């Protein structure tokens, strides 16, 4: 007799164990479920097996091959395009089934007497016999009712509580006559329980149920998967064990070492080539796969550990599942019901809470407590690259070893012998990171032009001038004083594209790093600082009306807030005849706090008033960003600074184009209309602004008050130093003061609010917003922008690229409208987040 082994299931409810493994290949007692089924068939003299495959078919074919090593003859039928269902896949191989045959599910553990079922089938002259069993709770299964002769009279697939009329259920094992397959349509999806058997009842064909004695467990979910192990260890089911029983209830594989001080309670299984450390405690019910290392003092309370796992010293595992190749570090805890997918890493002293599932290849940071399923992303550090480069806590996330590997990953995406520019701010931590990056670059045969401590606008200017293929700049993060930001430029000085970022990430995570031979190690050279500054100054001058500045007699106060490298602006301005007073130009190794920055801004306003200066400016972000102070000491920043710069530039260059981020105030459009110009809005990230400023014709300004401003004819990045010089030029030519310009700006109300939003809810939130607004109301540049086509009123819901947050912006000429809109959308978004989280928790 031939058997059809149905092995096409993807095992959705067993995820994450089945993310990279078909359900029948999930191990029970260190053998695939399908192997236990093969052994059952072989014990009942059924040795010709046809396996129907769909999900990850190669896993089973590679393991069983022709079946000869398992004492059977195996052939395979693969459903390539779409699953055909339990009956459809059997119909697909009808030409191979010319006699009575058996169909058996590949995802259950059982020791039924198959020969008794076959004898019953023949005795009753049945066309189809369903092997049945009795279970306490039949809700998850197909319920069947038979008469005294065993003939099936009624059945119901997965009934509700009120529909239960029997505790006798369908086990997914059938003995069938080949002619019943004629009732099924070819190449169409069909199911035995839902389609074929009801049809046979309707046609009054003889269809019987054989109530089998013995053990049966449908390994349909994770609790059942663990129960099958515990039942097998207690010999509630007859299975073939893969190892020798060294003592009653204790099966141990070959070449396994157990330290004499370790304690092992029966029943338990420990596979081949394992190492159990001193003082380890292995309680009854524990299953340990092959090639597993258990550290000293580890406490194992009935976990199921797959092949190749490493369990650290004093780790605590309780009734959990640890999949293939996973590493659980020292003192980590994985609690009851948790499931860790293959090739994951649980950091030292991390805790995986009860019932939490972690998908394959994830990393849980040391000390982390994980209370929710980790499905998307790789860790809390979701990718290497965020909104504007690679960032992380200084000397915790961004360590020397990390920076070396990052440099090597970037260099491995370049041709050997390529040249790159490397620069940094003046802080010691940035020097450490920059030197580590240089070491990584040189190790893969890339040559480095090291600009050392240099303001980032100068580094961007020098990148195309030096003829290199790209650049890297390291600095303390502009918004987070305890973090480092590493940015990558292309050959023009523009932040690299997402595609290039993905290449670097691929090289980093796959460890696909080139290693240069000794003679091909990269070189490092240090261009003359005087030459670098002279090059920048000459580039700077070509884009300015130097004579206008020279005759302005301007006096400005510059506050460097203890943190700008290469403070060359006063030197440049004095060369142009301006009087520049410099504050706080010395360098602090630690970045100042937001409170200190505000205090310094207040002091700057006072100094501007006392000195009767034309303006003051506070420069930050290593020369990229700034805040203005007008002659009366009032600060101009954010949206007001954006509007002021657009106003000044378009007054000087009417009918030109400006580029701003999607969330910038509509004051930009109002100013652009006055000057017959054009506005282009981009995604809210620096790279998008840089690319749009370079790629579109007639662009004279890009950026915003919060990011900085781009002058595309100078270089492609943000430049506070040039912005200030250009501002002095325009104020002189236009014969205006900052206070006068401020009064001309449109009165637009622009507010924002930030909500916490889990990563897994963000996509659903965006879809919900799109579905609940008409196409005419929507702009989808970045996030979801709900607009009024008749005026400048809009609301923008923008997910944060690097944090589990969502930002809501509201904009209008009407203050009350802004307050109402912000309150309305805050409520809508929060209600949706709460509802989604509630549904996720229920699931």
Explain what this protein looks like in three dimensions.
By secondary structure, the protein is an alpha/beta fold. It folds into five domains: about 1-220, Spore Coat Polysaccharide Biosynthesis Protein SpsA, Chain A; about 240-370, UDP N-Acetylglucosamine Acyltransferase, domain 1, CATH 2.160.10; about 410-430 and about 445-535, Alpha-D-Glucose-1,6-Bisphosphate, subunit A, domain 3 (Alpha-D-Glucose-1,6-Bisphosphate, Chain A, domain 3); about 550-745, Alpha-D-Glucose-1,6-Bisphosphate, subunit A, domain 3 (Alpha-D-Glucose-1,6-Bisphosphate, Chain A, domain 3, 3-Layer(aba) Sandwich), CATH 3.40.120; about 750-840, TATA-Binding Protein (2-Layer Sandwich). Strand 54 (about 785) and strand 55 (about 795-800) form a beta hairpin. Helix 7 packs across helix 8 (about 430-445), helix 7 (about 400-410) packs across helix 10 and helix 9 (about 455-465) packs across helix 11. The longest helix is centred in the last third of the chain and has 28 residues, at about 815-840. This is Mannose-1-phosphate guanylyltransferase. It is found in: Cytoplasm, Cytosol. Belongs to the phosphohexose mutase family.
């Amino acid at each position: 007799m031939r058997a059809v082994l149905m092995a096409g299931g993807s095992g959705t409810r067993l995820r994450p164990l089945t993310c990279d493994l078909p359900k029948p290949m999930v191990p029970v007692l260190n053998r695939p479920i399908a192997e236990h089924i093969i052994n059952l068939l072989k014990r009942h003299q059924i040795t010709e097996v046809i396996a129907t495959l769909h999900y990850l078919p190669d896993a089973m074919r590679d393991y069983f091959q022709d079946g000869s090593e398992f004492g059977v003859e195996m052939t395979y039928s693969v459903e390539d395009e779409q699953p055909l269902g339990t009956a459809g896949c059997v119909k697909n191989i009808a030409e191979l089934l010319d006699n009575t045959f058996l169909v058996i599910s590949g995802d259950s553990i059982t020791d039924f007497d198959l020969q008794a079922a076959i004898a019953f089938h023949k005795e009753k002259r049945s066309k189809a016999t369903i092997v049945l069993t009795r279970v306490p709770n039949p809700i998850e299964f197909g319920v069947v009712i038979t008469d005294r002769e065993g003939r099936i009279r009624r059945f119901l697939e997965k009934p509700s509580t009120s529909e239960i009329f029997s505790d006798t259920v369908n086990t997914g094992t059938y003995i069938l006559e080949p002619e019943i397959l004629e009732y099924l349509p070819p190449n169409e999806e069909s199911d035995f329980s839902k389609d074929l058997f009801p049809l046979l009842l309707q046609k009054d064909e003889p269809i019987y149920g054989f109530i089998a004695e013995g053990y049966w467990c449908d390994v349909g979910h994770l609790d059942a998967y663990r129960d099958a192990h515990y039942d097998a260890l207690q010999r509630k089911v007859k299975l073939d064990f893969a190892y020798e029983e060294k003592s009653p209830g204790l099966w141990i594989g070959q070449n396994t070492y157990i330290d004499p001080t370790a304690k092992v309670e029966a029943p338990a299984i420990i596979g081949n080539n394992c190492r159990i450390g001193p003082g380890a405690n292995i309680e009854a019910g524990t299953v340990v796969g092959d090639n597993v290392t258990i550290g000293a003092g580890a406490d194992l309370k009935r976990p199921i550990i797959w092949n190749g796992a490493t369990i650290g010293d004093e780790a605590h595992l309780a009734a959990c599942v640890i999949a293939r190749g996973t590493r659980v570090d020292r003192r980590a805890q994985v609690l009851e019901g948790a499931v860790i997918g293959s090739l994951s890493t649980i950091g030292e002293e991390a805790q995986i809470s009860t019932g939490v599932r972690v998908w394959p290849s994830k990393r849980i940071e040391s000390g982390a407590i994980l209370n929710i399923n980790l499905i998307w992303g790789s860790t809390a550090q979701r990718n290497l690259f965020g909104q504007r480069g690679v960032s992380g806590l200084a000397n915790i996330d961004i360590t020397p070893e990390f920076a070396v590997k990052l440099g090597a990953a970037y260099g491995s995406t370049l041709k050997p012998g390529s040249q790159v520019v490397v620069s940094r701010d003046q802080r010691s931590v940035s020097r450490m990171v920059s030197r580590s990056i240089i070491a990584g670059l040189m190790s893969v045969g890339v040559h480095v032009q090291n600009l050392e401590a240099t303001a980032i606008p100068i580094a961007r200017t020098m990148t195309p001038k030096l003829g290199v293929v790209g650049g890297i700049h390291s600095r303390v993060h502009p918004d987070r004083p305890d973090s480092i930001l590493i940015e990558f430029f292309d050959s023009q000085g523009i932040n690299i594209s997402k595609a290039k970022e993905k290449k670097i990430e691929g090289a980093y995570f796959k460890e696909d790093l080139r290693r240069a031979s000794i003679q091909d190690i990269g070189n490092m050279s240090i261009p003359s600082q005087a030459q670098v500054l002279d090059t920048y100054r000459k580039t700077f001058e070509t884009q300015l009306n130097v004579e206008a500045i020279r005759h302005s007699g301007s006096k400005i106060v510059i506050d460097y807030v203890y943190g700008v490298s290469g403070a060359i602006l006063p030197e440049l301005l004095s060369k142009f005849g301006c009087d520049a007073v410099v504050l706080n130009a010395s360098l602090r190794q630690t970045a100042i706090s937001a409170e200190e920055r505000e205090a310094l801004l207040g002091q700057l306003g006072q100094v501007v008033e006392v000195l009767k200066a034309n303006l003051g400016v506070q420069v930050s972000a290593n020369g990229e960003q700034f805040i203005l102070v007008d002659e009366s000491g009032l600060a101009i920043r954010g949206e007001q600074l954006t509007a002021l710069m657009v106003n000044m530039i378009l007054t000087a260059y009417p009918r030109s184009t400006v580029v701003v981020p999607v969330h910038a105030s509509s004051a930009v459009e109002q100013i652009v209309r006055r000057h017959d110009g054009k506005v282009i809005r981009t995604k809210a990230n620096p790279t998008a602004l840089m690319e749009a400023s370079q790629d579109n014709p007639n662009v004279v300004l890009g950026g915003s008050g919060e990011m900085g401003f781009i002058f595309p004819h100078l270089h492609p990045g943000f430049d506070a130093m040039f912005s200030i010089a250009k501002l002095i030029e325009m104020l002189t030519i236009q014969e205006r003061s900052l206070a006068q310009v401020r009064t001309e700006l449109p009165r637009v109300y622009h507010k924002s609010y930030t909500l916490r939003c889990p990563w897994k809810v963000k996509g659903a939130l965006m879809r919900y917003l799109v579905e609940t607004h008409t196409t005419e109301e929507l702009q989808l540049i970045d996030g979801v922008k709900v607009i009024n086509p008749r005026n400048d009123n809009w609301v923008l819901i923008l997910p944060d690229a690097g944090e589990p947050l969502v930002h809501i912006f509201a904009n209008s000429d009407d203050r009350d409208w802004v307050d109402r809109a912000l309150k309305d959308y805050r409520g809508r978004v929060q209600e949706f987040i709460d509802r989604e989280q509630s549904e996720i928790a229920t699931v």
